[in-house]
């Protein structure tokens, strides 16, 4: 499963980078395959382990902010591994054929 999620602290002002870094740190320390871009962090693994990382990332921000917003999108596809890489490779292959 791949989960793309975004955690936003609310009530802390406009500069939220340090709060988001705390959430990303949790993801990186999990050891699961992941990618972070300007809008989302994607993480890949089994349901329980991925959702545990998301829960802990939210808790890291929640410990410092009065309110937290979580946006989550999941691709639940049993048997697929390395989807973070293979999905992008498929798109790149199609682009190269054009």
Automatic annotation (TrEMBL):
Residues 3-91 form the Thiamine-binding protein domain. Transmembrane segments: none annotated. SUPFAM superfamilies: MTH1187/YkoF-like. Gene3D superfamilies: 3.30.70.930. GO terms for cellular component: cytosol. It comes from the Bacteria. Belongs to the UPF0045 family. PANTHER family: UPF0045 PROTEIN ECM15. This is Uncharacterized protein (TIGR00106 family). It comes from Streptomyces zagrosensis.
């Amino acid at each position: 499963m791949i989960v793309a999620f975004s955690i936003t602290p609310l009530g802390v002002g406009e500069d939220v980078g340090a709060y988001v870094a705390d959430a990303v740190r949790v993801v990186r320390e999990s050891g699961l395959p992941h990618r972070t871009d300007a809008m989302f962090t994607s993480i890949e693994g089994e349901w329980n382990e991925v959702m545990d990382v998301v829960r802990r990332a939210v808790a890291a921000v929640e410990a410092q902010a009065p309110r937290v917003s979580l946006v989550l999108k999941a691709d639940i596809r049993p048997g697929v591994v390395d989807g973070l890489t293979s999905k992008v490779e498929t798109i790149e292959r199609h682009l190269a054929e054009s």
